[in-house]
Amino acid sequence: MTNGVNMSKVSLDEVSELAASPDSPLQYQTLDRRSFLVSGAAVASSLALLLLGDKDALAAKPPKYEEAVEEVLKGAKPTADMITLKMPEIAENGNVVSVSIDATAAEAAGKTVKALHVYATDNPWPYVATFHLSPLSGKALVTSRMRLARSQKVVAVAALEGEEFLITETFVKVTIGGCGG
Amino acid sequence: MATIRPKVRVPKTAAKGDVIQIKTLISHPMESGIRKNKKTGELIPRDIIKRFEASFEGDAFFVADMHPAISADPYFAFYFKVPGAGSFTFKWTDDAGESWTVNKSIAVS
Known about the structure:
The complex is a heterodimer. Chain A has helices spanning 2-20, 25-30, 33-51, 65-73, 104-108; strands spanning 84-86, 90-93, 97-102, 113-120, 127-133, 141-146, 152-160, 164-176.
């Protein structure tokens, strides 16, 4: 992907140089078939990038799970304690897998849970959902249903008040993958 | 597209200070944007509910930011500590900015 982008930048520069000097027809003549094809492809691919330029859409490359979780942790070291992730060990249908994130143990220890983040480490996109809680939330326990493309590790991170983080993970074996990939 | 129907289950009454469970469900395909039409091979455009907000007397107490990895017909079960009688607003918003709202109220016994 990075190679492709670099290539298109270089070739685009070439193209604009050529366009900027219309009074030197020699340059057009020296443009051989190969570089012509390359620049054509570059223009096409950058056009495609422009058309799909939504930050959360397909044009952007999906981040790895490690990068996605770092957006929340910002360098902090999470503790593997006081949070549990309840999921089936074997999911027959990856399209609908129940998931329960429970950080009530942290609340029992006097901490305030601000948000719960869920990640699927081996899905096309690692993000699943973020649940923002408030003092009116009563208890930090959320249940939902998610998609899993294949057997993989699911990770939950709880963000506590005072830049503290809790983390837990569980492995789910998926018989039929979801996400329709 | 089929009509989208949100459903919410909230107890009608509770005691002040009780922690109650709220369940919500909305029928929605949650099209991931990476699935292909099997006949034409073209990508089916993404169409998901991005955000769900549960508010009590205007204050959001539970907000979910969703990604395509949330299953079709998003379901949530979460909790609420009842500070007194009042009204809830539950609001779902999709990629196109369209939204669906359900209002509920709770009495304190």
